[in-house]
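Support request, please re-run this one:
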Amino acid sequence: MTKPVVGYVAGFTAPEGKTMGHAGAIVSGSSGTAQGKQDALEAAGVKVGKTPSETAQLMRAILER
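Re-run finished. Output below.
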């Protein structure tokens, strides 16, 4: 990536095994969990906020550079 990317993954407080939305029918393994998605994004170099407000702070810090 040549530009900064900030992301946010919802669903950390959802009950384990709870299908969220239509895409839940096609995901499997840890890739379908909020933690699995966060790990994949971070491995790709994305800065991931743990809350919406932390995500906004990450964006602000990047934009102020």
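Residues 1-7+32-65 form one domain. The chain has a mean pLDDT of 84.
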